[in-house]
Design a protein that fits this description.
By secondary structure, the protein is mostly helical. The chain has a domain of about 40 residues. Helices cover about 65% and strands about 0% of the residues. Helix 1 packs antiparallel against helix 2 and helix 2 runs antiparallel to helix 3.
Amino acid sequence: MILYSSLYVNELLSRVLEQETNYAVLFFDYLKCLQTLAAEEHSPDYALRHFELALLNHLGYGLDFLHCAGSG
């Protein structure tokens, strides 16, 4: 499961990030995700969700957990 999770992270980056753009800050989140996956201290979901949130923030898509999409 860890290998598939790592492949998912790589595939996500290759499809979402544009080429020739510097994402140096995102590299540390990527590294932390892979280290967390390798340590196997948590479920892979833990590392993946944290990385996905970090990726969204780096791309400028913040999530507002205080806003309900259904009721506003």
